[in-house]
Amino acid sequence: MCGIVGCILKEDEDVAPILFDCISKLEYRGYDSIGLATFSDNKIHIKKDKGKIIEVDNKLNLTDMPGSFGIAHVRWATHGDPSKMNSHPHVDEENTVAVVHNGIIENYLEIKEKLTLEGHVFKSETDTEVIPHLIQKFMDEKFDLEHAVRKTIEVIEGAYAIAAISTREPNKIVATRKDSPLIVGLGENGYYLASDSPAILKYAKDIIYPEKGEIVIVDREGVIVHDEFDNVVNKQIETINWTPEMAEKEGYEHFMIKEINEQATAVTNTLTQKENIQEIIDDVGDLQRVCFVACGTSYHASLTGKYLIESIAGIPTDVILASEFKYSVNTLNDKTLVVFISQSGETADSLKALDVANQTSKTLGIVNVAGSAITRRADYVIQTQAGPEIGVAATKTYVAQLTSIYLFAAVLSKNEELLSELEKVPAFIDEVLEQDDFIKELSKRYNYARDFFYLGRGYSYPTALEGALKLKEISYIHGEGYAAGELKHGPLALIDEGIPVVVILPPGDNYRKTMSNLEEVKSRGANVLALGAEGDESLKTKADVVIPINPDVKEIIAPLVYIVPLQLIAYYITLEKGHDPDKPKNLAKCVTVE
Ligand code: AGP
Q: pTM for the complete prediction?
């Protein structure tokens, strides 16, 4: 959802190569345009255009710009098509102020109208362009850059993280945020601003997290943060334990396949959260209801949580899409634990819901990104230990979320057996990954397909939903996940000769009934791809093809293992179609607008 970066170097060296390196690491946040602004010789220099980073760099040579401080942006268009004109940085008409912005200015039309009447001339269709014009206007009224930014945020409404530079106050970057992420990195060679930590891992490990409305002033001497009354805020410095290599492809063709291959480690590392979870459960005390709130893949992890907590801990559990949360508010009370699951910790729909839930209930965030907004606003936090996830399609963070939920349920119900089953999961995942070549070959069989169905019962139903989401978001093939027993209540009418139906059939209580559902679709001509226990001869005779999974993977832990082949299928089908799995069209990794 757009990425911004700012950097000021302590020495008088060119910042453009560093800015370019940092902003390239945020390509997962926006990949329709890129732009940089630097300052030197009393001028703001700008290079920007629409297109992927590599294309624009080939055309404009983005690393060749003068100046030791500047700002940069990757765009995920909201207002105005991807175009050179709409790309950031945006400037005022005299080129005295340049701004990069992540978020949406909701009242930009009325501001634009007013400024136009005052003589300002706008060049783009973006909401952002009002910001440099406002800053320029306030600087004309003799406010310094910091206070011009402060006056600007009194006018604009919406979500924003912005960084601004001005020719009238060189060697300074002023930044602020509200409802969009912004971090400040204290590096050895300079000071950094970024939407997300992968941008600056190589340059700064010590991080400050500005709060809403705080103004960050960065110059060569350091970083000062002011609150809304101009008081200096003593910010805590936190150290990121991710390494720069974690945000690199490390020889893999795409981040997605690298991250799929890191899943066993993500589970192992997340299992270390057991003690933290025990402490949270002890502190929460009397718990009468759990309510999960999430979006997308994190919602599917939550659905698994409902099955698990209700069946093994006997606590009523709801799962609510964050964007639909407001209708459930009246049912919350102080005996409800509201659990927010999010990879980024910055999803706008989830944050909005969290603010509401905090008024009545205890809140827990299960989040991958340390220091993100959910981690700062929830009462309790479990950090999934998946490392940075760059591919837009969530993979390793999904299994890490599931691991946290399983640990939570097992600790809550003192279920030692489940805990020991969890320990076996990393090895089971690695066994599935050994079938990579087989699954790659298999994926070629579905080149003709325009629709897929995914069926599962019980614990495997959320897996079916997640398998379908993976397929549609990166391959652009329609995929529909269904509870296997629900198919006959309508969608069975869609099953035709050759339509691929993926059936998730781990050994366990639901096996026989799901097998009947498999036969229902098979007898209507479906091309059945089944996931089941290795050695299940009956499955082999009934399905067109079987991906065998270790028979020791019990139904209860199947969600952690059976999702892996579905991720691989989505990945390889996407490659067959010639699409980039890391950067699916229209999508961004972190959705910071409602
Ligand atoms: C996952 O593959 C998707 N890109 C998307 O559904 C994602 O899970 C959703 O936007 C929620 O994001 P979060 O986990 O960062 O809150």
A: 0.92
